[in-house]
Design a protein that fits this description.
This protein is α/β, with parallel strands linked by helices. Helix content is 39%, strand content 25%. It has two domains: 3-18 and 89-218, GTP cyclohydrolase I, C-terminal domain/NADPH-dependent 7-cyano-7-deazaguanine reductase, N-terminal domain (GTP Cyclohydrolase I, domain 2); 30-77, Orthogonal Bundle (GTP Cyclohydrolase I, Chain A, domain 1). It has helices at 30-50, 63-74, 82-86, 134-145, 151-166, 180-183, 202-205, 207-218, and strands at 3-7, 90-92, 99-110, 116-126, 130-132, 148-149, 170-179, 193-201. The chain is elongated. The structure holds zinc ion.
């Protein structure tokens, strides 16, 4: 399987930054969320008509509203409160061994075509007195995936967020994903997987750490 690898290495920790600064959109009030669904519903109705389809036929009658609600789910990361999502699941620990969570399912939308990209995310960190509940790592991945994204930015946002939440000695994130905009249109490369990585702290500065991470991901 051809792998289009792109290394994305970011400089050390962003100490002192608040969680809200990590590409975290504003949380609209409930009223404006309903407004957003209404706006999207009429937009989807326009798309269906532009396709030459009959928006009144049975199978399509409720499609604009359904599609609008689905889009809300696929982009819920914009409206989630990251602090509430972490919900204090940061625990003190004296372990200094690498923590790795492999194969986290990832579903996102490319911001260029608004088509899905789907894959797996691997997250590792070297604790420095604090660890994060394992399910929270998956929630962080989702938080940044559920919005219009590009894979390189998503990878960096996940790494930066984990790093800021627990203040690790280092964080490594690898995302491997297949992009529907490549597979269903354009070059129609059915089997290409795009790989992106972001290495912070010791994952960036210490080659054996990075190699251990890569070995554990491939194991
Ligand atoms: Zn795309």
């Amino acid at each position: 399987m051809p792998v289009q690898a792109r290394e994305q290495a970011i400089n050390g920790a962003h100490n002192g930054a608040r969680l809200h600064n990590i590409g975290h959109g504003a949380i609209p009030a409930r009223g404006s969320e309903q407004e957003a669904v209404a706006t999207m519903t009429s937009a989807y109705a326009g798309i269906i008509e532009a396709l030459g389809e009959d928006p009144a036929r049975e199978g399509l009658r409720d499609t604009p509203a359904r599609a609008a609600k689905a889009m809300q789910v696929l982009t819920r990361g914009y409206r989630e409160d990251l602090d509430a999502l972490i919900n204090g699941a940061v625990f003190t620990s004296d372990t200094d061994e690498m923590v790795i969570v492999r194969g986290i399912e990832l579903y996102s939308l490319c911001e260029h075509h608004m088509l899905p990209f789907i894959g797996k995310c691997h997250v590792a960190y070297l604790p420095q007195g604090r660890v994060l509940g394992l399910s929270k790592i998956a929630r962080i991945v989702d938080h940044f995936a559920r919005r219009l994204q590009i894979q390189e930015v998503l990878t960096r946002q996940i790494a930066t967020c984990v790093n800021e939440v627990i203040g690790a000695r280092g964080v490594g994130v690898i995302v491997e994903a297949q992009h529907m905009c490549m597979m269903m249109r354009g070059v129609e490369k059915q089997n290409s997987v795009m790989a992106t990585s972001c290495m912070l702290g010791q994952f960036r500065s210490n080659l054996p750490t990075r190699e251990e991470f890569l070995r554990l991901v491939r194991a």
